[in-house]
Write a structure and sequence with these properties.
This protein is mainly α and about 130 residues long. Helix content is about 60%, strand content about 0%.
């Protein structure tokens, strides 16, 4: 069997299949119309789903924003004068800063902290054996 005979054989088989499908459609018009409509609805649903799942494109700015002046915090009742919203922190306090800001906790504060920690531990462990 050479290529020409194979090609003719394929053409004949496809013509027979096409004729059978054509005859079936002509004999069962209602069923064929329902199948075609269902196929069309499925294709439209797939297209809409693909369109809905498409990722939105990222907005890219052409030029970076540069500040021409220093940013100022607007005055408000919640912010005290002289309050810094950000600052560079040091590794450690100086002795003067420690004396000014650090307060040694007393026995009452330590007992309150101990009770609060014990309560948290009891809530976590609960009725564990």
């Amino acid at each position: 069997m050479d290529f020409k005979e194979l090609w003719e054989n394929i053409k004949e088989k496809s013509r027979l299949i096409f004729e059978k499908v054509k005859n079936y459609i002509l004999e069962n018009t209602m069923m064929s119309a329902c199948v075609a409509a269902l196929f069309l609805v499925i294709i439209i649903a797939i297209i809409l789903l693909c369109a809905a799942l498409k990722k939105p494109e990222e907005v890219k700015y052409e030029r970076p924003v540069t500040l021409t002046e220093e940013m100022l915090v607007p005055p408000s009742p919640a912010m005290m004068d002289g309050y810094n919203s950000s600052r560079v922190t040091k590794e450690a306090w100086s002795k003067e800063e420690a004396e000014e800001w650090f307060t040694v906790p007393g026995k009452k504060e330590l007992d309150d902290l101990s009770r609060a920690n014990d309560q948290i531990i009891n809530e976590i462990t609960g009725a564990a054996p």
